[in-house]
Structures are given as structure tokens and as C-alpha cells.
Amino acid sequence: MRVAYDHQIFCAQSYGGISRYFANIATRIASMGEEVGVFAPLHRNQYLESLPSSLVHGWGVRRYIPKTGQLMLLPNRFVAKQLIKKWAPDVVHETYYSQRSSVPSNTRSVLTVYDMIHERYPKLGSRWDQSASLKRLAVYRADHIICISCSTRNDLLEMYDLDPNKVSVIHLGVENLTFGMGKGVLSSEKRRPYLLYVGARSGHKNFMGFIQAFASSARLRGDFDIVSFGGGSFTRAELQEFERLKLDPNRLFQMSGNDEILGQLYFDATAFVYPSLYEGFGLPPLEAMGHNCPVICSNTSSMPEVIGDAGEYFDPKSREEMAEAIECVVYSPSRTKELLRKGLKRREAFTWERCASQTFNIYQQLVMSNE
Question: pLDDT tens, 329-365?
Fold first, then answer.
């Protein structure tokens, strides 16, 4: 079988969860002996650099000219569509949402829906964001849709008029990040017990809710620092909120870096806190579990589905409940030990091999139904 992946996410992301997802399943389906092609004519994605060159139809650049990312989508789509048509795949998996498809006529198409954040929280995004409208176009033209959680599937079917039989759930996989045990990534004068936060911080991510819960507990603010990885430097509004809450700015750190640094931060953290209001799946808790880090997380959307009994839950809209959940773990060696044991077991259920195998089964069913 010939399986093609289009250019979209590889032109939009240098790094990121979605492009990592497609790089992982493309590699594993190719290792099963199938013909796989990733059609990204002029991309900036670093994960494609690690794929066998025979899989990638295109050339990588370190970065685009500033402010030309959206402009690059048009020529990439035009060239990718011609290359895909010439290659004549059996199925095309669109990697994101677009107004126009790169799928040749009479070729089966698959789309993955990652979450319904824009539809659930429309006021939290930019008014210029077209993700919801582009998603609608992509969803209705796809022959089959994969959702990355039952929570996302339920939301999709609630908001779209779709045949449930054409919507499947396939959970993501997760790999352990590389790291050097014991090296530490914080300088010695900063090496205090800390709570770890990972990712973007605005909108539904509820980072400031976490900070307010932390600040409400005299014990937590006295005993722990906070390390935030990724998401860019703290904004002026965030710094002003830290000041309003009378938090010591020397006890809150923002860090960036590669997977090795993130892996070490998980390993060294007292606990990982995930306060999001909504997630389509949520990889960071599974990453934390794989690095011997207890997980304290929201009880909404996909989180209970993914994390199971391996997390300490709280209502993300309750600062008091969040603080109590954190205290329940960080001041209880027995609870910490229990979460670590359950986390390692839970983490084993989410592999890229399983994700790729189930995804390929969808491709096979589509192609057979078209014969």
C-alpha cells in the first residue's frame, strides 16, 4: 500500500506535538514494509531530518524568512499536490486543516482531529484565528476521521453532523526523552525543590490559575519554586500578576531547550502540575510518568481518560482544590510513591507502535472499501 502525508504541519512547525506524531507513525508504517511518502517540498521541520531520506519528498531549511510562514503554504500546497498525484498513493493523510485539499480525486483521505478547543472556548483565541472554519472544511471532505481521544470524538460528534462510523479513536504514543541522570539543569544556587509546568501558558492552559493556587498556600510558596518549561519568556502581564501575589521573582523560572533538558527537568521535579481547562489528549503527563515524576492534573476533558488512576486530580477552576491536590502529593511520600508506581505502568499502554498499527488498519479498511 502507498500512504502519503501532505505538507501542512511540516511547513507550519519546526518542532511540535503534531509533526512529531506524523513523523512517528510514518516511520513505523514504513518499517512494516509499506510504501510511505511525506510530501513537504520546502519544509522547516526538524523531525523530518531524522527520517530515512527515501520517505521525504522535499528539502528542509532551518527557518523561513521572517513572517513568511503562511505565504509558504501556498507554493508548498501547489507543488505537494502535483507530487502526490504523480506518486499515485492509495490513501492520503492530511496533516492539518486547510481550505483546499492536496488529495487527488478518487484517492481515499484521512484526517486527524486533535481537539475541539476552538469550538469549546471560542473567546480564548484570536478573532483572526480561522482554525475552526478550516477544520470544518477538512472534516467534511475526509473519508475517515481519527480522533486522539474519546473525549475529542464525543465533542466532534456533538458539534458536527457526522456518521459515527467514520470517526475512530486512536490514542497517541509517547517516547521517553533522553536525559543524563543526576546532571541537573538548574544552577546550584537555584537547585531547590520545584513544581514543574510544561508548554504554552495562555488561555485554556490555565497557567495563572496554577500560580494563584500556589500563591494561596503558605506551605507551597515557602517550600517550593516553580519552573515553567517552554511557552516563551514570562509576559509583562504574568510578571505583574506575580508581583500582585507577592511572589518572589527569584523563585519562578522560565526555561527553554531541547528534549534532553526537558527530560531532566521532569526527573528532578518534585511533581508535575497540569492545570489545563481542556486537552484533546495531553502528552506531558505521560512524559512525566516516564521520568519518575508524579502527576497532579485537571479532572476535565481527556485527562482522566489518558492518565487513568495514575494522577492526583483537581477541578481546574478551583484554586483551593488545586492547592489541596498539590499538597496531598508533595507532602506525602506514600502518595508520591503510589503515583510513581501507577504512572510507570500507565505509561506502558501508550506506544507509537500501537498507534501506527491501528492507524494503518484504518488505511487498509478505507482502501478495501474503495475496491
Answer: 999 999 999 999 999 999 999 999 999 999 999 999 9
Q: Give residues with Cβ within 8 angstroms of 196, minimum separation 6.
A: 227, 229, 265, 266, 269, 271, 272, 273, 288, 293
Model confidence, pTM:
0.89
Distance between CA atoms of residues 273 and 248, nearest Å: 20
Ramachandran quadrant class, 256 (left: phi over 0; alpha: psi -120 to 50; beta: rest): beta
Q: Which residues pair with 109 in a beta bridge?
A: 92
Crossing angle (nearest 10°) for helices 207-215 and 319-330: 70
- Residues 6 or more apart whose CB falls under 8 angstroms from that of 169 comprise 146, 147, 148, 149, 150, 152, 153
Q: Are strands 194-198 and 35-43 parallel, antiparallel or unpaired?
A: unpaired
Nearest of 174, 170, 189, 193 to residue 291 by alpha carbon: 174
**Number of C-alpha atoms within 13 angstroms, CB side, residue 56?**
22
Sequence letter at residue 337: K
Instruction: Give just the sign of the alpha carbon dihedral 255, 279, 97, 356.
Output: positive
Q: How many whole angstroms separate alpha carbon 319 and alpha carbon 296? A: 13
pLDDT digits (tens, 9 = 90+) for 157-172: 999 999 999 999 999 9
Name the nearest CA neighbour of 303 among 326, 276, 321: 276
Q: Would you state the cell numbers that stand for residue 213, as one nine-digit string? A: 493556587
Distance CA 226, CA 197 (A): 8
Q: Which residue has the cell 508520591?
A: 336
Say how far apart CA 145 and CA 225 lie, in whole Å.
42
Greater model confidence, 42 or 111: 111
